[in-house]
């Protein structure tokens, strides 16, 4: 049996640019997070026949799908199955692989494949209560850190609650990249580089698969973050995918491969990815809010209002874009200030940690520290301005982008000492928030601790922190099976989904 191929891809949070990023005239700030989705590919075992592919999501009940691949006259057909996302990923990636070297492809496939898809706990609302403090119904960051990795969920995929981290984009990116590596379409060395043709090819096919599986062409920021890591994203021309919607008959390579000859009469992959990192001593914290909103219906209503009120919408979009850019620029400036004078930066952070943002500009500090303080204050102002304008967008369109309960939760969170900014990620609604906090202070009196207290006491909704922080990786990456704690156990334990997480310690 050949060695396993393991590829992981990160989840995401769109901190700025929701709705705007659907239009190539505007951009969005997407942070890829430390929580990841893993795909493990092995040659098929005794239960997998030639040209058969078994895909499993062991954390879920009834989540094993068998696919038979038919190779006929250079066509590759993967039989349909219930999981549309997995089916599209197999159909398109195998087709692309067979276009390269049909013989080698057929030979590899004749061994059958076993594919396991496994997600970090953060992607789904965990039913396991606070293991540290059984009397407390909500998990805390400390109690979540003590949970075993890859908890079994004891439900079917259709019954699970997602946390908004982009499970489908991370799933697709990891499956597609692992298959491309397995069939030798891309190399490990090429894939390891951020700007390589191999990584771009993985991105392009993951975007196509995600669009087909979702039945719509979204902005693609989630797939882009899963492939490239945190960045400022400007979308690709949706027309590039138009010819591929009838993918069964058309060769994929000329449209997806960045190395293919360019046809100047056709739209090209023109998305822009400008790498980004949060400044030092700034931590992103996400919360899963037990609410629930439907992104497609929010998007539909916002688009409807925009198309009927073009001038008002243009003005609003321009103001939001300006505020988003102010936030990105100030965060970037902070990274530069850290490099230029680390001591002053650290001292400023230390003093801001004990003050709410509304008192930051009055803080008594040296000149160098004041420059840092002012940049942090601009991030706070931009965050608040964007929230105000996004609420306005929601009022205009008649939808709750930042519903009143979220406003109450965010106002209280952002008023805490050492909290820099907050908002509703992506399309907004009732199901998640993000907050940026300063990483400083005494062990029990950190801004993170204060925010956790606010969330724990919040009465109108159950608010649970997630473990995710900003990922410093370049996005999707190849892993060693033995290097990821708990991963091998998931794929080798029978009936894993029904195991009790406490027995996994
Ligand atoms: N562990 C998994 N195994 C197989 N398929 C999965 C898994 N997790 C998610 N999916 C697929 O992704 C689909 C969810 O995709 P959808 O686009 O609705 O959500 P999403 O926007 O990615 O959600 P979120 O951002 O909340 O994570 C599921 O219906 C399923 O087909
Ligand atoms: C509204 C939108 O801009 C963001 C949706 O983000 P999310 O899935 O809510 O994280 C849609 C999109 O970009 O595809």
From TrEMBL:
<keyword id="KW-0547">Nucleotide-binding</keyword>
<dbReference type="GO" id="GO:0005777">
    <property type="term" value="C:peroxisome"/>
</dbReference>
<dbReference type="GO" id="GO:0019287">
    <property type="term" value="P:isopentenyl diphosphate biosynthetic process, mevalonate pathway"/>
</dbReference>
<dbReference type="InterPro" id="IPR014721">
    <property type="entry name" value="Ribsml_uS5_D2-typ_fold_subgr"/>
</dbReference>
<keyword id="KW-0067">ATP-binding</keyword>
<dbReference type="InterPro" id="IPR020568">
    <property type="entry name" value="Ribosomal_Su5_D2-typ_SF"/>
</dbReference>
<keyword id="KW-0808">Transferase</keyword>
<keyword id="KW-0444">Lipid biosynthesis</keyword>
<dbReference type="GO" id="GO:0010142">
    <property type="term" value="P:farnesyl diphosphate biosynthetic process, mevalonate pathway"/>
</dbReference>
<keyword id="KW-0753">Steroid metabolism</keyword>
<protein>
    <recommendedName>
        <fullName>Phosphomevalonate kinase</fullName>
        <ecNumber>2.7.4.2</ecNumber>
    </recommendedName>
</protein>
<keyword id="KW-0418">Kinase</keyword>
<dbReference type="InterPro" id="IPR035102">
    <property type="entry name" value="Phosphomevalonate_kinase"/>
</dbReference>
<dbReference type="GO" id="GO:0004631">
    <property type="term" value="F:phosphomevalonate kinase activity"/>
</dbReference>
<comment type="similarity">
    <text>Belongs to the GHMP kinase family. Mevalonate kinase subfamily.</text>
</comment>
<keyword id="KW-0752">Steroid biosynthesis</keyword>
<dbReference type="GO" id="GO:0005524">
    <property type="term" value="F:ATP binding"/>
</dbReference>
<dbReference type="GO" id="GO:0006696">
    <property type="term" value="P:ergosterol biosynthetic process"/>
</dbReference>
<comment type="pathway">
    <text>Isoprenoid biosynthesis; isopentenyl diphosphate biosynthesis via mevalonate pathway; isopentenyl diphosphate from (R)-mevalonate: step 2/3.</text>
</comment>
<dbReference type="InterPro" id="IPR036554">
    <property type="entry name" value="GHMP_kinase_C_sf"/>
</dbReference>
<keyword id="KW-0443">Lipid metabolism</keyword>
<dbReference type="InterPro" id="IPR016005">
    <property type="entry name" value="Erg8"/>
</dbReference>
């Amino acid at each position: 049996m050949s060695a396993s191929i393991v590829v992981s891809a990160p989840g995401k949070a769109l901190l700025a640019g929701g709705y705007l990023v659907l239009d190539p005239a505007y951009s969005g700030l997407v942070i890829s997070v430390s929580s990841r989705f893993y795909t493990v590919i092995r040659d098929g075992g005794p239960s997998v026949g030639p040209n058969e592919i078994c895909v499993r999501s062991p954390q879920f009940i009834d989540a094993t799908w068998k696919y038979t691949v038919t190779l006929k006259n250079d066509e590759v057909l993967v039989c349909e199955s219930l999981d549309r996302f997995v089916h599209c990923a197999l159909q398109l990636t195998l087709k692309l692989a067979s276009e390269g070297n049909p013989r080698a492809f057929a030979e590899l496939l004749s061994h059958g494949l076993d594919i396991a898809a496994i997600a970090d706990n953060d992607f789904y609302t965990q039913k396991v209560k606070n293991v540290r403090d059984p009397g407390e119904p909500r998990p805390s960051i400390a109690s979540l850190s003590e949970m075993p990795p890859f908890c079994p969920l004891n439900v079917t995929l259709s019954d699970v609650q997602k946390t908004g981290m982009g499970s489908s984009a991370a799933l697709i990116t990891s499956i597609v990249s692992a298959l491309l590596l397995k069939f030798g379409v891309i190399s490990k060395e090429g894939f390891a580089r951020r700007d390589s043709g191999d990584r771009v090819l993985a991105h392009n096919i993951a975007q196509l698969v995600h669009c087909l599986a979702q039945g719509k062409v979204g902005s693609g920021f989630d797939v882009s973050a899963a492939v490239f890591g945190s960045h400022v994203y400007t979308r690709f021309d949706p027309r590039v995918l138009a010819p591929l919607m009838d993918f069964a008959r058309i060769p994929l390579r000329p449209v997806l491969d960045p190395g293919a000859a360019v046809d100047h009469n056709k739209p090209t992959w023109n998305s822009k990815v400008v790498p980004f990192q949060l400044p030092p001593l700034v931590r992103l914290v996400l919360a899963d809010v037990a609410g629930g909103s439907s992104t497609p219906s929010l998007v539909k209503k916002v688009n409807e209002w925009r198309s009927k009120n073009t001038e008002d919408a243009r003005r609003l979009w321009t103001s939001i874009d300006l505020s988003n850019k102010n936030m990105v620029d100030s965060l970037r400036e902070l990274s530069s200030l850290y490099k230029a004078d680390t001591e002053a930066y650290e001292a400023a952070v230390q003093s801001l940690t004990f003050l709410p943002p509304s008192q930051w500009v009055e803080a008594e500090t040296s000149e160098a520290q004041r420059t840092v303080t002012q940049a942090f204050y601009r991030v706070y102002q931009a965050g608040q301005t964007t929230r105000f304008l996004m609420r306005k967008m929601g009022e205009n369109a008649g939808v709750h982008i930042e519903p009143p309960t979220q406003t109450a939760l965010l106002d209280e969170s952002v008023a805490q000492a050492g909290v820099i900014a907050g908002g509703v990620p992506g399309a907004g609604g009732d199901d998640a928030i993000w907050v940026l906090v300063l990483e400083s202070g005494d062990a029990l009196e950190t801004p993170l601790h204060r925010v956790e207290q606010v969330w724990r006491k919040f009465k109108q909704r159950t608010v649970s922190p997630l473990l995710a922080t900003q990922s410093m990786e370049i996005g999707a990456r190849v892993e060693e099976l033995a290097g990821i704690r708990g991963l091998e156990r998931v794929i080798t334990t029978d009936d894993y989904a029904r195991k009790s997480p406490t027995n996994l310690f």
